[in-house]
Design goal:
The protein has about 400 residues and is α+β, with helices and mostly antiparallel strands. The chain has two domains: about 1-190 and about 345-405, FAD/NAD(P)-binding domain; about 195-340, no CATH class. The chain has helices at about 10-20, 35-45, 55-60, 65-75, 80-85, 105-120, 170-180, 200, 240-255, 275-285, 290-295, 300-310, 320-335, 345, 390-405; strands at about 1-5, 25-30, 50, 90-95, 100, 125, 130-135, 140-145, 150, 155, 185-190, 195, 210-220, 225-235, 240, 260-265, 335, 340, 350-355, 375. A seven-stranded antiparallel beta sheet has the order 17-16-13-14-15-12-18. It has a five-stranded parallel beta sheet with strand order 6-2-1-10-20, with helices on one face. It is elongated, with a radius of gyration of 24 Å. Helix content is about 35%, strand content about 25%. The chain contains 15 helices and 20 strands.
Length: about 400
């Protein structure tokens, strides 16, 4: 069986290796001059390759796509990914957040292992080979490149989405899929820093709240959160970043307008409002300490001083009025973070949206519209949170597509 894989990222290299390991003759085409460019950039060049959980834990993180991903994740779960790389000599470690990294903290080792697996299994890798179009021709497929046309039995498209276009992921395949009749769910940046903030928040640039609870709420209608994430929050000169803000960014970009949603943060999620109020009332008895010193018990000094300044005065605790106590609780437990936009695909880690899942077989990743066409990885309408989830989905879907294409 002749198989052409388009795109030598995480899903593509895994798909090529899997197909070649099942006796297919495989060509892996990559428009960049080297494989795995996005892998090399990921995780601050450390590559968070999966998460310390099971297949169910990964699937649950993908929301609407969880049922679609279950078969491939069940066949190649996180432990299998760890075993796969450790068999290639890449020792891994689990950090306190559950993220799995190579012990070396070097993404290049992950990329090199995937590349070596593919080459050793007999894959022919062609770099600097941009694809311009794919089309069916009877029982075969024609893959048109910038230099020639390749005739093949099966084609696996793993070109990724539009995030980090500097890595070559410029959304090329959306036009190919549309031409072939596939529906594309609206693409938008996800896991992306948010633009906004009041001036005093922007002045906090570089400040991190290690433990926060960020929620996205609709502006109108029922106030049930659309998304909620607990984790680090980074204040920047342009707005907000860090795991908590970036994890909910995809829900915000799903709205028709940023004016339809609002972002709020609980700065002290380990304490209930009742516990905070009790501590405030206890401190009022002391009398001499100021409000900023109370806030510094829980928050970085710069943030404590910023909140105090917004409330108008740094009064002594004994002078804290009922109204000021309410404002203080609101600032700590329900602070609004104004958001007007995102930093776009240029700074997004993943693309939300993509090829509609009901048009793809979840066990084989073969198109339901065209026999011999397989679609895997970020090109599909799947996007998960920070923490190795998206690489895990890429590895599992790529492997499933490769095996199915070779059979």
């Amino acid at each position: 069986m002749d198989v052409v894989v388009i795109g030598a990222g995480a899903a593509g290299m895994m798909a090529a290796y899997a197909a070649a390991s099942h006796q297919a003759s495989v060509k892996l085409l990559e428009k960049n001059n080297k494989t795995g460019v996005k892998i090399l950039m990921s995780g601050g060049t450390r590559c968070n390759l999966t998460h310390h959980t099971d297949a169910r834990g990964i699937a649950e993180a993908f929301g609407h796509a969880k049922r679609f991903l279950q078969p491939s994740l069940g066949a190649f779960p996180p432990q299998a990914v760890v075993d796969f790389f450790e068999s290639a000599g890449i020792a891994t470690k689990v950090e306190s957040t559950g993220k799995v990294f190579p012990v070396s903290n070097r993404a290049v080792h992950v990329r090199d292992a995937l590349h070596r697996y593919a080459v050793d299994s007999g894959v022919e890798i062609r770099t600097g080979c941009g694809v311009t179009r794919i089309r069916p021709d009877g029982k075969s497929w024609i893959v048109e490149t910038e230099e020639s046309a390749i005739v093949t039995d099966r084609v696996i498209v793993t070109t990724g989405g539009k995030s980090w276009p500097g890595c070559g992921t410029t959304g090329d395949a959306y036009a190919w899929m549309t031409e072939l009749g596939h529906a594309i769910e609206r693409t938008r940046p996800a896991l992306v820093p948010l633009i906004g903030g009041d001036p005093w928040m922007n002045d906090l640039s570089g400040l991190v709240v290690d433990d926060s609870l960020v929620s996205v709420l609709p502006v109108s209608g029922k106030q049930k959160p659309l998304a909620r994430r607990r984790g680090g929050l980074l204040f920047t000169h342009f707005g907000f970043s860090g795991p908590a803000a970036m994890d909910v960014s995809g829900v915000m970009t799903a709205a028709d307008s940023m004016e339809d949603v609002r972002l709020i943060v609980d700065l002290i999620p380990e304490c209930t409002e009742e516990e905070l109020l009790a501590e405030i009332n206890h401190r009022r008895g002391g009398g001499k300490s100021k409000m900023s010193s109370l806030l510094s018990m829980w928050l970085p000094n710069r943030l404590a001083n910023g909140i105090t300044a917004q409330l108008g005065q740094d009064v002594r605790m004994a002078e804290l009025s009922k109204n000021l106590r309410k404002q203080l609780i609101d600032n700590l437990k329900r602070m609004t973070l104004p958001v007007i936009g995102t930093r776009g695909f240029e700074k997004a880690e993943v693309t939300a949206g993509g090829v509609r899942l009901d048009q793809v077989n979840p066990r084989t990743f073969e198109s339901r519209l065209h026999q011999g066409l397989f679609i895997a990885g970020e090109l599909l309408d799947v996007d998960g949170p920070i923490g190795g989830y998206n690489f895990q989905a890429a590895f599992s879907s790529g492997r499933a597509a490769g095996i199915a294409a070779a059979s």
